[in-house]
Structures are given as C-alpha cells and as structure tokens.
Amino acid sequence: MAVLSKLTVNGDRLNASINRLAKIGRMPNGEICRLAFTPEILQARYLVQQWMVEAGMTVRTDAAGNLIGRYEGQIEEAPALATGSHIDTVPSGGKYDGVLGVLAGIEVVRSLRESKMRLKHPLEVIVFTDEENTMIGCQAMAGTAKQLPHEYKPKAAGSIEDCLEIIGGNWDELETARRTRADMAAFVELHVEQGAVLESAGKEIGVVQGVVGMLRKAISIQGQANHAGTTPMDMRQDALVAAAQIVLAVQEIALSMPSQPVATVGYLTVAPNAVNIVPGQVELTVDMRDLSQACLSEMLEQLQREIKTIATATDTQIELKPLLCVEPTLSALPVQSSIAQVAQELGLGHVAMPSRAGHDSLEIGRITDMGMIFVPSQNGLSHSGEEYTSPEQCTQGANVLLHTLLQLDEIY
Amino acid sequence: MAVLSKLTVNGDRLNASINRLAKIGRMPNGEICRLAFTPEILQARYLVQQWMVEAGMTVRTDAAGNLIGRYEGQIEEAPALATGSHIDTVPSGGKYDGVLGVLAGIEVVRSLRESKMRLKHPLEVIVFTDEENTMIGCQAMAGTAKQLPHEYKPKAAGSIEDCLEIIGGNWDELETARRTRADMAAFVELHVEQGAVLESAGKEIGVVQGVVGMLRKAISIQGQANHAGTTPMDMRQDALVAAAQIVLAVQEIALSMPSQPVATVGYLTVAPNAVNIVPGQVELTVDMRDLSQACLSEMLEQLQREIKTIATATDTQIELKPLLCVEPTLSALPVQSSIAQVAQELGLGHVAMPSRAGHDSLEIGRITDMGMIFVPSQNGLSHSGEEYTSPEQCTQGANVLLHTLLQLDEIY
User: How confident is the model over A174-203, as a mean pLDDT?
Assistant: First the structure.
C-alpha cells in the first residue's frame, strides 16, 4: 500500500459546521428534535445544500427526497464513490448521530477542492431521508422500499406522499431513486458508534464488519388470572412466570452463540397487573441482532423450542408473531481493509466490530460495496442530548473517511 | 359426640333471601356493586336489619357501623356465640361472597325460633363494616383499628369519619366497639371458598385451619436503559433480566416450603418499555401468604438472600420496601373439630384447608376462638359476576353452621 498523502481535513471547519447545524431544532433542554419532513429538517437541508454548493458540488434531490451533492471526478463516465448519512434526529436526539457522516463528507470535498484535487470517480455526498423512522430514503435507493404508501408511517403529520412532496420528492416516481453498482461503485459511511465498545477498548476507530440483521417477534402469553391467595401454586397458569422464563431463555440463547449476538426483551406488560391477582396475560417483544442470518435463524429455532417447553411447564398458551425481519448486510472486504489500513497509517487505534444499530448503509450495502467507519460515543450514549464525540474524534473520523475514499478511488 | 338433632335450616328460604339481597346494587351486566357507605349498602343493611328483627333478634349498630343482631340465650349473663360476615362487595362482585355468612346466620336463628329453641348462649349475627376494603368493622371489634382517620381510605366519597356517620357509627367512639373473649365465647363464619380446592377435591365442606397472614413487598430494580443493538450482552444492566430472576425465585421459594404457602408477583412494570431499549427500571410487587408467621419470615429471608445474589449477577440495584404485613390467625381447635364432626355426621365430604383470602375472621380470631366453614366456589371464581355456589351447597353450609353452633353451645 502506498504511503498516504499528507492531505487532511480542516477539523475546526468541520466542528464549526456540526455546531452550526446543531442550532436547528435545538430545544431549551439542549436536546435536538429535527424530525424528517418538518420545518426544522427543511431549514437544515437548506443549510447543508448551501454548504454543498459552496464546496463545489452540484446538488439534486431524488424522488425519495434524498439530497445528493456531487463533486465531479476526472473520469466523467465512472460510477460514483459515495458517502453520507442523515441529518434527521429522533425526538430527543443529539448533535452527532448522522450529522457527522454528512458534514465529514462535505468537509472531505472542501479539502479536496482546496487542494485542487479531484478523484477519478465522481464523489457523492448523500443526505438520506428519514433514517430515524421510515428509512424510505436508503430503501428507495436500494430498491427495497415498501409497495404501498400506508406501509410508511412518518412521524410528521400527513401521508408519506405528502411528506415526500414537502422535501421535493415524489412517491409516484420512487422507483427512479433506485441506484445500482453500475452508477455507485462503493459507499462509505462515517458514524458515531452509539455504543461503548470503542471507549471500553480504548480505540479511536471502529472498522465495521457489517450492519446486523434484526429479527423482532411479539410474544403473547395467555394464562389464567386468579386470586393470588386462594389459588394454590400447583393450580396456577401464571403468565408472568412463563414470561420470566422466556426473558431468561432469550438471554441464555444469545450468550450461547459464538458470534456474540444481542437479544433483548425490551417491552413487557402484565394484565390485570394487580398485587393480589395471579397474572393472566403477558405481552412481550424479543429483538435479536447478529451479522449472520444463520445465527438469527438458529436463535429463533432455539427460542421456539424453549417456548414450547415453557408453555407446557406453565400450562399457558404462548403465541409468537412476526414484528420485523431485516437481513444483515456485510461490509465489503476491500472497503474494510482500506479503512483498517488508513487508520493504521494515521496512527489511530482500530478494532473490527459489527454495527448493531441500523444505518442507511444497511440498505445501500445490498446494491453495492459498503463499509462504515465508527468513532467513539462518550459513555456509549446516543439518541440523547448527552450524546458526545469530541472535536478531535470527529476530525479523526473525517480524516479516515478522506483517505479511505482516496484508497477506494484506486481500487474501484 | 352426641348424635345431631334432626333440626335443619329452610334452604328455600335461605336461597330466596340470597336472591332478594342480590337485587340491591345489581348492575345491567349482572355484577353486583354494593360498596360500603353507599346508598346501596344502606338499602341492604335496612333489609337485613328487618330480617333480623323478624327472626326475633334485637339489633344494634356499634361505633364501627357493625350491625349486630342478637337472639338471646337461656343464660342471660353468658358470653355470646357469634357468627356473621359482610354484605358489602367489591366494585364488580357476586351474590355469595360475605352475604352467605350473614344470611345463613339469620336463617339459623329463624330455624331455632321456629323450633322454639334457644341456645344457652346468646347468639349474635354480625354484619361487619367494609370487609372488602378498609376492614374497619372487624378491626374495631378486635381492637386492631388504625389510630388516625386518614389511614383509612374508604372507596365511597368522604373521610372515614363521614362514612361511619352515614351508617350510624362514630369514629370518636370507635374504642367502644371493641369486644373480648369475656363477651364473645367463639365466632364461626360461613363463607364461599373463593378458590377451587373443594371443587377439585370433590368435597362439600372446607374446615378452615386459619386465615393466612400476608407479607407484601414492593421491589424496585434500577439498571441502565440502553440501546438494545449497540449494548453487548456483557455490558448490560438489564432490570428486566433481574426481575425475571426474582419472579422465578419467588415461585421456587414458595414451592420449597413444606406448608404449601402461596407467593405471587402480580404487578410488574418496565421502563422505558420499548422494543429496542434494554430495560432500565422495573417495579414489581411480591405477595406471600401462609398460616405460619415463621414460614413467612423464612420466605422473606430467602428472598432477600436471592435478591442480593441477583443484584450482583445483573449489576443492578434492588430495593425492597414494605407494603403490607398481616399476621395469620389460626382457627381454634375445638371449633375446627366441631365443624369436621358435624360435616361427617351430615354425610358431607370435608377437608381441612387454610383460608388464603382475608376475612373478618382474621381479626376476630385475635380476640376469641374462631373457626370458618367453606363451601365450594364454581371454577374457583370470586369477585366476579360469575361467582356461583349452588342453592344446595349454600344450604349444606348453613346446616353445618347451625349444628356447629349447637355443638359450641355445649363446649363453651
């Protein structure tokens, strides 16, 4: 591998942009609320678009409302190299989630332009639509969008058709937003980790192996509500005892798999939920995530077996209903190794890790070579006003993004 | 033991009384709502009082609002034998809970009077005030009433002082309602089982060994809410995993005790309670019941030990707060054996069993010899419009009550 050029991004400028964008949608308590399709997101999109234009990009909006800045390359007909992320937030979000990837992409273009450099490939910086909720932007681009408008429930008022129109998209032409490997050679996303793995390991850079798949199930347990005094232990059909066994089974199944998946019962409600009544009904959810679809399937099979045993042992009826099934996407090996090599050359500690949160890359990785760069999240916090990644760490991430794109420009 | 006299109650008359009283407070869906201190209970008390007078009793109301009908005995200065129960219901109650004990008591007096019989002892039929909520009636009579009015929260509007006044009681003179063994030699209560033990065993009569004590605790588990994707299994402080271990520990502790206590986690709430967030906080309650205070204490100690282990294993903080502590009351052996002998002589199958629901007898047993007679509850249902005990079973219970009182009249 060639020694890296001395080129670096302007960290001060990057962090100033992050702080400027954070003013839009900031609430009195310091949290940021910039939901897709709202006046706040329109204001933020306008600002980012301005920055793209100032950095020498041409800007367009596709039918899914994705904002795409393009910095032309030396070879006009070459497929694009792309980067980007999102600028919408959860209702009580922070400054970095998504934003860092978009603004680091723009900063990379600014730096290239200042050095009067162009890649061979066109370089695109993409702001994906509504990553925090519907993910319609990356889905439309990957050709995985849902067929019917009512399958999307935007958090802003109105139908998805109305919402797309607000930001310059068009539901009826959604298909035109679709991209392929032929026009996008590779995609790299810089993002905050949203977990504490990097901080715990004392590493600056996470080389993401892929975005995990998700399997979510709703579980209904039907027992028999009864008097907590007059119902002997051996005559009970206690739905909460069954639920407790499921909660522990879910944990044990995850711990028993070699790939270190995660599995969570995050939601659980009891009925009638009174101190002196044996619980008659429990509803709960299971969320399982792993890089390997085979592992997810194996976990589900084990859970189904356990549930049968538990239903018999507790004299309850247990039903399992699908909530969500998202297949994992693996990062492309050339992108992973470029990121790792760049981090190495820049003297940054790095570690390979899965992304266990969903990202736009999850969908884009289905159509082209994908990779992700993680930087640390203080205390692992995210989706919170306390979300924090230091200016230095943001700059480190942007420099890894810059040099990774330079490497990929040689490879692809 | 002497052969029983041929005397029997008039079952048709008893069941007609039950059906007549059930019209008061009956809602369109067939459930009965006759809360203490409401117009419905006043109407019911008036009817019962009339029946008492018609049966030859003198009637008085004590300071706790207990309605006491007295059928004088042959020996004027003898302490009373007493029976009774309550006629207030839960908000969605049935026809039998409490009512059977009161109306069977009155039917016993009617039958004695028709046969021109008097016991040696005066015979009292007591309607206790607000058994389903405050239990102020039996507590005042046992001298266990709370000191301050605001410690009682009547379901009817107003303070306990106002409530007592409505039914002819007087908070300021509550102490005068107190009774002792010197004026009440024994107390027997006939009640529906409110469980399915008799039905399962195919027995007509339960000989109650005592009313169980209750130990209720609130448990707070503080973990750390976190992203269900990005938080590895070994970095979690999952409050729901801790709660699940507690739910199962509670069950195992109850099953391990030789006296067959019951223990229930009936209430459990999770926060933030979202499919994709590791639970940060769980609140739950534990309700433990047994005839032996030593067993309750041992169960609590075991639970406290388990909770320490669970807190360490799950990296959570677990706090245990007292909710309720009621000491058990054992039935007096002479009363128990009288009931069993009477059932035997009447050719009724009987079984000894604890009462795991609270009753007026719980308090009255603290001041005098107490016993309870149970009759079956169909499907174990109670506190429900579907509560059902057949007319034949009600009559059987009343006949056991009649002959038990005749026996006790010889013993005391």
Answer: 97
Name the closest residue on chain B to residue A269, using Cα atoms.
B269
Nearest-5° angle of CA B257, CA B262, CA B268? 120
Residue type present at position B352: A
- A401 contact partners, CB below 8 Å, separation of at least 6: A83, A104, A105, A108, A188, A190, A373
Residue A5 forms part of a structural domain: no
Cβ <8 Å between B262 and A228: yes
Q: How confident is the model at residue A181 (pLDDT cuts 50, 70, 90)?
A: very high
pLDDT in tens, A199-232: 999 999 999 999 999 999 999 999 998 889 988 9
The boundaries of the domain holding residue B403 are 11-212+328-411
- Is the per-residue pLDDT at B288 higher than 60? yes
Tell me what the mean pLDDT of segment A276-280 comes to: 92
Q: What CATH number is attached to the domain comprising A356?
A: 3.40.630.10
- Per-residue pLDDT at B1: 45
| Spatial CA neighbour of A281 closest among B266, B152, B401, B245 | B266
Q: Count the domains in chain A.
A: 2
Task: Look at residue B227 in the predicted model and tell me its pLDDT.
Answer: 87
Per-residue confidence (pLDDT) for residue A299, from 0 to 100: 98
CB contact under 8 A, B243 and A245: no
Q: Same domain for A297 and A399? A: no
The residue of A276, A324, A362 whose CB has the most chain B CBs within 10 angstroms, and thus the best one to mutate to test that interface, is A276
Residue B284 lies in a domain: yes
Q: How far apart are CA A190 and CA A197, in angstroms?
A: 16
Q: Tell me, yes or no, whether A125 and A266 share the same domain.
A: no
Nearest residue on chain B to A234, alpha-carbon basis = B255
Question: Chain B, 285-344: which have a CB under 8 Å from a chain A CB?
Answer: 285, 287, 289, 323
- How far A312 CA sits from the closest chain B CA (Å)? 16
pTM as predicted: 0.85
- Same domain (yes/no): A253, A269: yes
Contact assignment for B228 to A266 by CB distance below 8 Å: yes
Residue of B269, B275, B299 to mutate, testing the A interface (most A Cβ within 10 Å of its Cβ): B275
Which among A326, A352, A367 is the end of a domain?
A326
Q: Which residues of B touch A194 (CB under 8 A)?
A: 227, 229-230
Q: Which residues of B touch A241 (CB under 8 A)?
A: 247-248, 251
For the residues A241-268, what does the mean pLDDT come to? 97
B299 contacts on A by Cβ (under 8 Å): none
Confidence bin at B2 (pLDDT 50/70/90): low
Nearest by CB to A265, which of B240, B285, B289?
Answer: B240
Q: What is the pLDDT of residue A385?
A: 87
Q: How far is B267 from chain A (nearest CA, A)?
A: 4
Q: Considering only the beta carbons, identify the residue of B232, B245, B287 that sits closest to A197.
A: B232
Beta-carbon separation of A269 and B264 below 8 A: no
- Residue pair B382/B31 in contact (Cβ under 8 Å)? The answer is no
Q: In B244-393, which ranges are E strands?
A: 262-264, 268-271, 277-278, 281-290, 317-326, 329-330, 350-355, 369-375
What residue ranges in B183-316 does DSSP mark as E strands? Answer: 184-192, 205-211, 213-222, 226-227, 262-264, 268-271, 277-278, 281-290
Of A312 and B230, more confident: A312
ipTM reported for the complex, 2 dp: 0.85
pLDDT confidence tier of residue B3, bands split at 50, 70 and 90: low
Q: Please provide the size of chain A in residues.
A: 412
Residue B384: pLDDT band with limits 50, 70, 90: confident
The answer, yes or no, to whether residue B183 has pLDDT greater than 80, is: yes
Contacts A229 to B, Cβ<8 Å:
194-195, 212, 214, 262, 287, 289, 356-358
Task: State the Cα–Cα distance between residues A136 and A143, nearest whole angstrom.
Answer: 10
First vs last Cα of chain B: how many Å apart? 15
- In a mutational test of the A interface, the residue from B192, B276, B314 whose CB has the highest number of chain A CBs within 10 Å is B276
